[in-house]
């Protein structure tokens, strides 16, 4: 049996308290699919990867909520893939939520590498 996804890493969401997580906190659940995007305009980190929640109930940019970033310790490979146009190779999901934890530890993410559809039978 061939897996559809391969575990890559786990990490906490960085910068959570500075962005839009509070606006959509009630909608975030374990298993929620998030969107990763290389932040080419970030002057502090050339490998900055922003993490977004896309609200399925809202159309357009009004439904895009930036939650924070992948931490620097986990972003180099993901940023390289995104820079090269491999925007669909990684899957990012919420694996843990803890509203009582320190803001930098409230959202835990799991990243998986998705199988190339051309390889599936």
Can you walk me through this structure?
- This protein has 121 residues and is mainly beta.
- Helices cover 10% and strands 35% of the residues.
- The chain is built from two helices and six strands.
- A six-stranded antiparallel β-sheet has the order 1-6-5-2-3-4.
- The radius of gyration is 14 Å and the shape is globular.
Q: Taking strands numbered 1, 2, ... along the chain, how are they ordered across the largest sheet?
A: 1-6-5-2-3-4
Which regions contain 5 or more consecutive residues with pLDDT less than 50?
none
Distance between the termini: 11 Å
Classify the helix fraction into a percent range.
Answer: under 10%
Largest sheet: 6 strands, antiparallel
Mean pLDDT: 92
User: What proportion of the residues form beta strands (DSSP E)?
Assistant: 25-35%
Which structural class best describes the helix and strand composition?
Answer: mainly beta
List the total number of helices. 2
- Kindly provide the radius of gyration, computed on alpha-carbon positions and rounded to a whole number of angstroms: 14 Å
Number of strands: 6
Overall geometric form: globular
H-E order:
EHEEEHEE
